Amino acid sequence: MNMTAVIFDMDGLLLDSERLARAAFVDTCGHFGVGDQTALFMQCVGTNQEHGKQVLREGLRGKADDVAFGQLWNAKCAEYMSDAAIPLKSGAAALLQDVRVAGIPTAVATSTPGARATRMLRNSGILQEFNVVVAGDQVQRSKPLPDIYLRAAELLAVRPDRCLALEDSENGVRSALAAGMTVIQVPDLVEPSDAVRALGHTILGSLHEVREWYSASRAPDAPRDLAVRVAP
What is the CATH T-level fold of the domain 5-15+87-228, as seen in this structure? Predict the structure, then answer.
């Protein structure tokens, strides 16, 4: 595989932050008395704040004030994540080291707003690993549209079809595929649906498996169809 850049999602892929966001969401649901809204939370995963507001507006219609809900959820997320270092996902540090040693440029493409994303990456000790950070408030259209990945490739001065994108969520996978990138999905909170699996990208169980894939893809005799393996 002729890979010249790697673009990483952040929440749920590099940082174990989606569980904190879900805990904050559950707390907010309890405050408003709306019951189990797991499906609504999953629709918000991988989208920026503006698109998330639309999702909440539709999902909470007739149940709660979506604006007040979103404000409280955002406040609770900030409280949960504050200035503490969010743990890295298993294998993240080693994978970043492998890519750095290979001299391949890297970017983060996250739906999280820029100031918060930068703080989270810095607090977790990996901000310096990336040449570029593109955040959800820096593009007009959210994942699953391709804008954020196209912008990351543009800033890296790399063609999108020469980029490897690493994602955990369906919205992120669809965004990177729409940008024309090779995509590996490492699911976090939910397993891919049949519809997502049908997209034809690579699905692996952990970032440790991504490291193995990465090493094999760079071998001189790597098979041409290496990128289409899908884990069961």
Answer: Rossmann fold (3.40.50)
